Here is the input.
Amino acid sequence: MTRRRALVAAAAVLAVVVGVALAWLLARPEPSAWADGLSITAVSLLFGLGMLGLVDAEPSPDAVAVVAAVWGATSLVAAWLQVAQRVGVSAFEVGVGDFTTGVESGLPIVVCVLGSLSVLAWAWWTSRGSTQINAYVVAAIAAVGILVTSVTGHAGQSSWVPLVVGAHALAAAWWIGSLGALVLTVRGRGGWARSLPAFSERALGVVAVLTVTGVVAAVARIGVGSQWWDTGYGRILVAKIVLLAAAAALARWHRTAWLAKARRHGVDEATSIRNAGIEVALLSVVLGLAAALATTG
Here is the structure.
């Protein structure tokens, strides 16, 4: 099963790249979009790992540490590429002085790096077997990273839109992050029979929040009209909405077919990993589009 889990992880990474590539066909996001997409995917998975208690599961400190390291590293790469874009040089020519003055907003990168280091400290402390610190701490740190990343830039241009965008980002992170965390953590028919129904019960409300906040934020950003297909930003938005609708339809089918059997211990572990992996891959394409959207004028 380790190989299957590794394949899901690889598929998610590839799907993020596909999402960014699709955005490039529709508009011209900044070069940092691919690193932003990987960073968003990593912190979403970290959020899901921290929230596993809601679905009667516990994260592995080793898995948390690896994901936290990826989050911190990709956040640094994204910031580096952003500086190169702002300064007008190649990424290999960026100096320390450029890096300290060229980041459009330094808060997200500081929060992401410090957040990843804090989670690594949690994983180290927990793996020692000392006094246990609840995994919800990991979720809280990841949530701060998600919020500070999502509400800066475009979203920060209004007094109330950041609240909507923040709720949208957290809902998306819980959906894909929790599914990814289940793939990494849950073992056997019994594990999926216990955790999948708990996930499904909460998913309906989360998808509803995701849908409503997404529509409100999109209309607040570009209004209603031809700009939805005349501008690169609008075209990426349309692609994101279409793929989210496809993901919701897939989740609905999984709820009627996969969930019913899994509840009765009628689905083996390999099938559950496959089903969750397909949904994670589709949502990862959406995250790639979202990352590109944040860097598209």
